[in-house]
Design goal:
By secondary structure, this protein is an alpha+beta fold. The protein has 13 helices and 10 strands. Helix 2 runs antiparallel to helix 7 and helix 4 packs across helix 6. The chain is flat, with a radius of gyration of 44 Å.
């Protein structure tokens, strides 16, 4: 029975309207809304994220980047995508190889159709909100030979979830987005609800125009969006550092208080300070400002420094430290980037990154899936008839498990050879059987001993004479037999001497 073919959805060229996709979409012009966030506004933005209304949550996530405790792990979360290599795996066959070469120039590491900035914006939005939107613009080449798909990030603040939206297939609920009012009519949803403007477009994943990046199928913005847990964490960190700074001001600035001598008036009949009181006040101000290192105090007067000895700063420090840890764990899955904490023994940070690595791999897999379904397959269908020749786009993630296996084998092999060398140095017999036993013990490949270069000596049974006695020549070597034969042969006759006549 022949092997079954791998299940795959093939997209056809007729599914995509080239004229519609060639019109570029533009989001509305954003309005600057930078302001200080109150606790009530932070909670309201978090609730809007849960309801699929993303305008205020996007602004809140932007404010997170003003806090070092959240900005550092967020940056580390995005860093692997920027440095990892990208490979395009072509489809089978010569034609698949040719399509793969074209796709590499468009969607590879240095591809012109998917810029690094767009990838960073999409991944950052996916991390903070659990969902990100990409948009395609199909640009025909001047010679008409190809249609290139340029992929960009679509600002999420203009996107919202409308649960009662009626889709063409009869289902309800859809992501919709506001667009620039000058968008071509062909892009607009004519039967948009009256609560929205007419410049409203539904977002359909994989239709050639839109790409939805998400980890979950059902309301992904309520599942693993960082805004949900980081909203109040950011507020706690900001308030802790604010109070800590205020406490630092109180601790670092001592107050100087003076007491006039008994019976000396502080004010005259008009309520103004007396000359003595004013002079004493000037002395206290000079002491507080550190401009005058010395002063004369009237007899009977007192001066006192009031300092803040409250241990409340420990509470603010503990709160700030904990928010730093929670931010790292939330974004990376581990606080290993912070090293050993609280006097604990040193830890191997590289080992702790195992948790964070799985999160990063999930992010990159989401990018790979979205780009393949929403960009590369429509591009292949429009240019080559269907998506069967679409290449795969993959991040070249190092395999930590494979590297660990190689390192472990290298360590065992080194120990094996050291054991063999030590046995030989002590004069022990190290033969093939010993090597096989040691190789099994260390779980390494057993070496093969070289064969001897000398030919083996074979002793033949003696040849017997006719009278039953052994023939001595049967035990002679080849050289001895040759020498005996030479002695047994008669000498060669001497050459004749020519005669000559005697005169």
């Amino acid at each position: 029975m022949a092997a079954s073919k791998r299940a795959r959805k093939i997209r056809k060229a007729e599914e995509f309207d080239g004229v519609r996709l060639a019109s570029a979409l533009r989001p509305p012009i954003p309005v600057s809304d930078a302001h200080a966030w109150s606790l009530a506004e932070i909670r309201d933005a978090r609730d809007q994220q849960m309801n699929g209304q993303f305008f205020k949550p996007v602004q809140l996530a932007a404010a997170f980047r003003t806090c070092p405790a959240l900005a550092a792990p967020f940056k580390n979360r995005l860093a692997p995508e920027r440095v990892l290599g990208i490979e395009l795996v072509p489809a089978k066959g010569a034609r698949g190889e040719a399509v793969g070469r074209e796709g590499d120039a468009l969607f590879g590491k240095d591809g012109v159709c998917f810029a690094p900035g767009a990838r960073a914006d999409i991944l950052g939005c996916l991390v903070n909100h659990g969902i990100a939107i990409g948009v395609n613009t199909a640009v025909p080449r001047e010679d008409g030979s190809r249609v290139d798909f340029f992929h960009a990030y679509w600002p999420l603040e203009w996107v919202r979830w409308y649960p009662t939206w009626l889709n063409p297939d009869g289902s309800r609920g859809a992501l919709v987005t506001q667009v620039d009012p000058h968008t071509p009519e062909s892009e607009l949803q004519r039967d948009a609800p009256s609560i929205f403007s007419t410049a409203l477009v539904p977002i359909t994943h994989g239709d050639g125009r839109w790409v939805i990046y998400q980890h979950h199928q059902e309301k992904p913005w309520t599942q693993d969006a960082a805004v949900l847990w980081a909203a109040l964490l950011w507020a706690a960190n900001a308030h802790a550092n604010r109070d800590w700074s205020r406490g630092s001001t109180s601790h670092g600035n001592a107050k100087v208080v003076g007491e006039m001598p008994e019976g000396m008036a502080l004010a005259d009949e008009d309520g103004a300070l007396t000359v003595q009181a004013k002079a004493f006040l000037d002395l206290l101000q000079a002491i507080a400002s550190l401009d005058m290192p010395v002063g004369i105090r009237p007899a009977g007067s007192k001066t006192e420094l009031l300092t803040n000895n409250s241990p409340a700063w420990q509470v603010w420090k503990e709160l700030a430290d904990k928010t730093d840890k929670y931010a790292a764990r939330g974004y990376l899955g581990t606080d290993g980037t912070m090293g050993s904490q609280g006097g604990a023994p040193g830890v191997d940070i590289a080992a702790l990154f195992g948790v964070a690595t799985t999160i990063v791999q999930g992010d990159l897999a989401c990018l790979e899936r979205g780009i393949r379904e929403g960009v590369i397959e429509p591009w292949a269908a429009m240019n080559f008839g269907d998506s069967s020749l679409a290449p795969g786009r993959h991040y070249m993630i190092p395999d930590a498990d494979a590297e660990g296996v190689v390192a472990a084998y290298a360590s065992r092999s080194k120990a094996f050879h050291e054991d063999v060398a030590q046995r030989k140095a002590l004069g022990y017999v190290v033969d093939a059987a010993t090597l096989a036993t040691l190789a099994e013990k260390y779980d390494v490949l057993a070496p093969v001993l070289p064969e001897s270069s000398e030919a083996p000596t074979v002793t033949l049974a003696p040849r017997m004479r006719a009278d039953g006695t052994p023939d001595p020549s049967s035990n002679m070597t080849g050289s001895e037999l040759e020498a005996k034969k030479a002695q047994a042969q008669p000498p060669a006759p001497a050459a004749p001497v020519p005669l000559r006549a005697v005169p």
